[in-house]
Amino acid sequence: MKFDADQLSVMLSETGVRDGPLHKRVSGGLRILIERGELPARSILPSERSLAIALCVSRTTVVTAYQELQEEGRIERRRGSGTRVRPPAFDDRETVSALALAGSDTSSSFLDGPLATLDLSTAALPGLPIVAEVAAGLTGADYAALVAQHHGYHPRGILPLRQRLAHWYTEAGIPTSEDEILITGGAQQALELITNGCLQPGDDVVVERPTYRGALEVFARSGCRLCEVPCDRSGVDVSALDALASARVPRLCYLQSAVHNPLGTVLSDDRRLRLRQLLRRHPSLIVVDDTSLAGTLFEEEAPPPGFAAPEAPDRVIVIGSMSKLFWGGLRLGWIRASTRVISRLARMKGRLDFGTSLVSQQIGLRLLEYVPEARATRRVQLTRGLTDLTGLLGDLLPDWTWDDPRGGPSLWVRLPHGDATHLAPMALRFGVAILPGAVFSADSTTKDYLRLPYALPRDVLTAGVQRLAAAWHAYSRHEAADIDLHSVTT
């Protein structure tokens, strides 16, 4: 397994090592990744020069770090074959497959804790107070009723919640029955179920550029071949999708219809209609990720959830979740699809966990009565945060640009030059963690972007952007020095 410099740079940033001399930070981060198995035995590490460029440090810093790890017996360096992770002497077999261990993923910031004093790398929203109020309102009688449901295993989800969600879709113009709803442990589990149930290694999967980072990781683990189509302020470019589907006949297309992560855009009515027309011409599955419940939209009137295609009911699958609107800690999501598809996915889910927590489902059922209030609260919270963030960026980083989002918890920002993957380790030295845009595309072509959250207190945003501005100026000087050095050596 070979790791390129940019990939390893992101992995190192997520170890949280930020104390001591630079070479100690590099060696310390690599040591952690090797000990965890994230860099499996015999993995090939990048050259000193390429890693130095990605980390915005001198080549000497990386050479010293590599030498330290070589002396410890953690890596081996041979002329002509590069630098590799040394297998342990007692047993060179991995307990868990290397594919499962290697790399950086969405869960890293939650697994390893905060990466820096100020964390601008995650756009997870804080829970709303109404969640605690509803949870506290469950009585002993409510719990007794749950326990009285014999074994308590409901792979499809409890009937009242499925009926309520089906009613919500029907009211929105998509006739739905409770048998067309499957409750899951969050949207991520929903996506895993769909991927495992509908895809095989080697299948072509179309995604937007950029798109949700977690989806890219799920599809990559499944061994699929990812194809990208552009996404703009109106959503996915349907003409480009039509052309690609005609040439490649993908097995599945993964699209976002409500508030796009990370763009903050919304699929237009015209493109929503054209996607339905596209289904008539192509046999691909369409997975519509609508995890926000449109609850983070700045406008009062929400767009319809996903879309349905009566002429191809088995080929449209919609994912929903309560994480963005209410609280991620509920771990409550769902899949809306045809009865036939839901039946098969429910059987798969039953083999995994026998069903999502009944307590979370009961809380979720009651929270659905508070959707209008929750949307209003999120709207105030997010528009205020967006105003704060854009004001700070305009004052401190006036060369950075963005399109105003229509919703969501984050801003998709473009750098005037450079690579956000290389800026990230520099930002960590100034005490602020950021997430580079490369992780939101299959081919890392969005390197000149980064995603910045704004659902944070103003004092946190202020300090974060101030540190980020200092890091940007240091990075720009470093980049200029590298360019000058390269022009001399060539």
From TrEMBL:
Which CDD domains does the record associate with it?
Answer: AAT_like, WHTH_GntR
> What keywords tag this UniProt record?
DNA-binding, Pyridoxal phosphate, Transcription, Transcription regulation
The residues forming a coiled coil are none
Q: Tell me which SUPFAM superfamilies the record gives.
A: PLP-dependent transferases, Winged helix' DNA-binding domain
Identify the InterPro entries for this entry.
Aminotransferase_I/II_large (IPR004839), HTH_trans_reg/aminotransferase (IPR051446), PyrdxlP-dep_Trfase (IPR015424), PyrdxlP-dep_Trfase_major (IPR015421), PyrdxlP-dep_Trfase_small (IPR015422), Tscrpt_reg_HTH_GntR (IPR000524), WH-like_DNA-bd_sf (IPR036388), WH_DNA-bd_sf (IPR036390)
Is Lyase a UniProt keyword of this protein? no
* Domain HTH gntR-type span(s) in chain numbering: 20-88
Gene Ontology molecular functions: DNA binding; DNA-binding transcription factor activity; pyridoxal phosphate binding
The record, for Pfam families, names: Aminotran_1_2 (PF00155), GntR (PF00392)
Family classification:
In the C-terminal section; belongs to the class-I pyridoxal-phosphate-dependent aminotransferase family.
Name-wise, this protein is: DNA-binding transcriptional MocR family regulator
